[in-house]
Amino acid sequence: MTSAYGLIVTGDDVEAAVRATLMSWMAAYTYEVARQKTVTLPPVRVYAQSLQTLPSGEVADELPAVIVVSPGLNGPPMERGSGQVDAVWAVGVGVVVAAKTSDDAQRLAKLYGAAVRSLLVQKGSLGGFATSTTWTDEETTPYAFDATKAVAQCVLMFEVYVSGVVSRFGGPATPPVDPTAPATVGTVTTVHTPVTKL
Fold first, then answer.
1. What is residue 50's predicted lDDT score, i.e. its pLDDT?
2. Which tens digit of pLDDT belongs to each residue from 39-65?
3. What is the domain count for the chain?
4. Which end of the chain is more exposed for a tag (fewer CB within 10 A), N or C?
5. Rounded to an integer, what distance in angstroms lies between the CA atom of residue 172 and that of residue 174?
6. pTM of the predicted model, to two decimals?
7. Residue 155 belongs to a domain with what CATH number?
8. What is the distance between the alpha carbons of residues 61 and 151, in angstroms, rounded to a whole number?
9. For 94-151, what is each residue's pLDDT tens digit?
10. What is the pLDDT of residue 59?
């Protein structure tokens, strides 16, 4: 039985799929970047929606951190002949790191950014959630600096293409008497067709 409403996808679903993919693969890609560039890169400590949602304490103590945000669609949705509507979400992934100097922090941010970029381009289906993920932009900037540490960020932008986020022909034919009851559509397994000899 499937829902009569069909699949309903939100921006939170897109963020969650990106975050889950990063959490599953980031250690491997970070290690590969470190191996290729002959550097040591500590594992990402926190995955969050913003710097404000990091655990309590000094922000630098929680770094490196990865932040995933989807502000909305990147262009109008596209309807197919079947009534299925596809959409492309803009997704920003920020990697925030700390080091002793501003130059070191920015260099470190670029290394983690390269890991994120390679990961999401190569694992663009996000575990089967999306059709594809396209890398569209990247920028590394200093974030903060004091006498003991420098913080920098690499922000990468992606387009996440998701098929069938809503169906034009879905939904019950009439308002349900009980809106809390699941509206399901059954699957026909046997069809009996009478045949008349002419």
1. 75
2. 999 999 999 887 665 554 555 667 899
3. 1
4. C
5. 5
6. 0.84
7. 3.30.70.1700
8. 11
9. 999 999 999 999 999 999 999 999 999 999 999 999 999 999 999 999 987 777 789 9
10. 58
Does 38 fall in a domain?
Answer: yes
Phi, psi at 133, each rounded to 5°: -130, 130
DSSP strands (E only) in the chain: 2-3, 46-48, 65-73, 78-79, 84-99, 132-145, 150-167, 184-185
Give domain status of residue 7, yes or no: yes
Could you give the C-alpha distances from 89 to 10, 64, 127, 163, in angstroms and in order?
10, 25, 16, 11
Euclidean distance between CA atoms 35 and 41, whole angstroms? 9
CB atoms within 10 A of CB 92: 16
The answer to whether residue 182 is domain-embedded is no
Residue of 70, 65, 72, 55 whose CA lies nearest to 23: 65
pLDDT of residue 148: 79
Q: Is residue 190 in some structural domain?
A: no
Tokens representing 25?
Answer: 């693969």
